[in-house]
Amino acid sequence: MQVVYVMVANAGLVTGLQQEQLLELTLPYGGVDSIIMLPGKSYCFLIFKDVLHASRAYVSIHGKIKLTPNDSGPLYLAYAERVPEFSHSWNYYQKPPGLILLEEFVTEDEEESLLNCIDWKTTDSHLGQTLKHRRVKHYGYEFRYDINSVDKDCPLSEIIPSECNFLLDRLKENNANVLSSFPTQLTVNHYQPGQGIPPHVDTHSAFEDPILSLSLGSSIVMEFRHQIGQMIPVLLPRRSLLIMSEEARYAWSHGITPRKTDVIPTQSGDLTIQQRGERTSFTFRCIRKGECTCVYHDQCDSYKKKNSISKVHIIDDVLAAQLESLHVHEVYEEIANHFSHTRHKPWPNVVSFVQSLPFGSLLVDVGCGNGKYFGKKTGIFEIGCDHSVGLADVCRDRGFEVFNCNCLSLPLKSEIAEGCLSIAVLHHLATKERRLRAVEEMVRILLPGGKALIYVWAKEQERYKTQSSYLKQDRKNRKKVCDSELKHGQQHSDASKSKDTTSNKASSQFPSLPIHTNRTQFQHQDLLVPWKLKVAGKAELDKTTEASHLESSQEVPTFYRYYHVFQEGELECLCSSVKGAKPIQSYYDQGNWCIVLEKI
Amino acid sequence: MKLLTHNMLTSKCLKGVNVGYPLGIVAKDVKVLETEFNSEFVSRIIPKLDWDTLWNAADSIGHAGDLPRAVCDDYENDVEFLKKVHHVLVEVEVIEGELVCPESGRKFSINKGIPNMLLNEDEL
């Protein structure tokens, strides 16, 4: 019998459809072989075993039944001659290369004893954490989610339970001699129905090949994804051992969608829905000594580190100075007036800080720009300094004291100020050492008890599900757009056409720095951010750090500013190395990481 | 550049300079700008100052007037004294000129009231 394709309109990934919902509706008619969901579409396809089952479903559903009561209209079905190539259709026999599944790896008794040997109520509370998706416990070494790796120098006191000792022998019995020695790390995950784990590749440099995962308590469907777009769902039966080796371990991500049911194939090959139970996985791994040497470079952190692909490792101070000169100082000189026009709304928290200074204080604003934070409090003396001659001029024109200098060497005496500001400055420094030096200089000029406030651009532009005003500005780039690697000369041939090279060509000297797409999430920490210069005309009243909604045109010079955007915790970590000061407050403010330091 | 600012500036950041304070002033254009006087503010600022430097700086540009060479004991209550200090600290501004490092002789120009203390790579 020929399979029959039925297109279902008003139901697709874009409408928020879950496979399970549609299957719950159509399965009673029987004969559903497969369901094909397409990304970004509001329709999907059902594949029926035969025309009998297809027509039963068609007659009952088409134009008559809504998928959910809140839908504005019913589902519309149509017969199709074929279905698209790209699909998530279930193929029970297809597995990523290197994936081995050993069913009934443990007995029911062994399953019970393994589940019982895990003490979730551990006294070391940080070792038995409750993450938002599932409970986790580590043995041997702790997996650190903040660095996405293992601290190889810090073994845990809790070693892998002796109940697991059967592992190597059991593998031999199954003719799966994939391990030469007993694993050195165990992670136990406990999933309630509805919990999952986002797709990920286990960090190459942290763990060897293979990785073994035992499923206890319940079966589940794990989804494997390859970079090129393929997704393969794999059913992990209860008490089975999953072995991820070679390509499956290194190049495919694995994840569990947080939901309460899974779509699985039945004996006869068509689809059904299975409720999830509480599942506990035991994932055994061998800590890798040294770096990974695999061939799967795109997912390999060792390879990327060695070849400086996704990061710019500027170790050289001279090179850092050159980068800053070209992509910070020169740019600000060129854009000073335009920049100043867009910088007149001060951030309230910074203003509060200034106003909290006692009467008779000296306030130094390092990197004061146009003096945005001056004049907010009477009875204090304000001195600004900035590298940019153009911006300092604006500051001076507004009636404030200012001088030019480099923030790495402040020409100021020590212990003179009650307050110090560094707003949107540190992120223009190209090495950690230089950023540290800048903070040390600020601490040096503070009086004991004096406070410094530092704001830097955050890599995380979305926080607590709220987008920063930087992101909200976006009109054209609603979806996340990846940064583009600079291709020599290609993108910026327009810019170089302007006769007097006022727009610096983004970086023939720094070709590995990615160019950011304005008003999108940051994909890298070190990058170049475009600034389209608006020439004489009405000033844009921009609330945040980017200007100009001009259509990209050959007339508009574009400048590229260097930024090192800070990850969560990074600013605190940097300041913790500064002697003589302690952090008294740290927070997130509209796309910035912020800290207040007090001089001891 | 006001003399209050000058009182805080140093060239110690230069390579090879040990103290770098006080900076000499060569003034080509000085302006006087009347600003609102607040006695409490001036009282609070005085302890931060290197008085000799203030007096010498004011004198070198011809604006010391009858500013005393030393701070009197009860200055908080001496309004006349405080007014003189106020004048010298914030009302006198060097618009064009130079600051000079006392050890190396290195000059930093002052343009439009803004001292330029940007260093070259080899000076850091």
From TrEMBL, chain B:
Localization per record: Cytoplasm, Perinuclear region; Nucleus, Nucleoplasm
Principal subcellular localization: cytoplasm
Keyword Iron: no
A Pfam family hit: Trm112p
Entry keyword set: Cytoplasm, Nucleus
GO MF entry, a single one: protein heterodimerization activity
Entry's Gene Ontology BP terms: rRNA (guanine-N7)-methylation; tRNA methylation
GO CC aspect terms: nucleoplasm; perinuclear region of cytoplasm
Record bears the keyword Nucleus: yes
InterPro entries in alphabetical order: Trm112, Trm112-like
Family: Belongs to the TRM112 family.
Record's protein name: Multifunctional methyltransferase subunit TRM112-like protein
